[in-house]
């Protein structure tokens, strides 16, 4: 088997990730290209993968019932959303109060 490239869709397991691999094939009857997605479980030794990462998988010996792939490298890291920190009372005291315009 040859290496495949896909997107990490789950990393909730220890040392394991689920990777979705898309492929296009030509449908002869409809004369269109159709996209199919396959999900593979892969071994991630150091738990480095996050959801949304683009990874390359290499085939390996069976590691468990469903794991036959190993994460070879992370091609592109996902941009992870970090919520803004809550404002502290010290931050609020530093701001100057601007009076609202009065409508008269």
Automatic annotation (TrEMBL):
Keywords associated with the record: Ribonucleoprotein, Ribosomal protein, RNA-binding, rRNA-binding
The molecular function terms in GO held by this entry are:
rRNA binding; structural constituent of ribosome
The answer on whether this UniProt entry bears the keyword Transcription reads no
Q: Does the keyword Translocase apply?
A: no
- Gene3D superfamilies annotated for this entry? Nucleic acid-binding proteins
Q: Name one GO cellular component term.
A: ribosome
By its UniProt entry, which CDD domains does this protein fall under? Answer: Ribosomal_uS17 (cd00364)
Region: Disordered, residue numbers: 85-104
Q: Which Pfam families match?
A: Ribosomal_S17
Which InterPro entries does the entry mention? NA-bd_OB-fold, Ribosomal_uS17, Ribosomal_uS17_bact/chlr
Provide one Gene Ontology biological process annotation.
translation
- Taxonomically, which superkingdom? Eukaryota
Q: Which family does it belong to?
A: Belongs to the universal ribosomal protein uS17 family.
**Functional description taken from the UniProt entry:** One of the primary rRNA binding proteins, it binds specifically to the 5'-end of 16S ribosomal RNA.
Name of this chain's protein: Small ribosomal subunit protein uS17c
Q: What is the lineage of its organism?
A: Eukaryota, Viridiplantae, Streptophyta, Embryophyta, Tracheophyta
């Amino acid at each position: 088997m040859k290496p495949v490239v896909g997107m990490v869709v789950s990393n909730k397991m220890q040392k394991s990730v689920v990777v979705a691999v898309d492929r296009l094939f030509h449908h002869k009857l409809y004369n269109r290209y159709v996209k199919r997605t396959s999900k593979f479980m892969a071994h991630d030794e150091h738990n480095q993968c996050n959801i949304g990462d683009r990874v390359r998988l290499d085939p390996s010996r069976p590691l468990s019932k469903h794991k036959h792939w190993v994460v070879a490298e992370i091609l592109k890291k996902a941009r992870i959303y970090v919520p803004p920190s809550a404002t502290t009372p010290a931050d609020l005291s530093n701001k100057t109060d601007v009076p609202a315009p009065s409508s008269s």
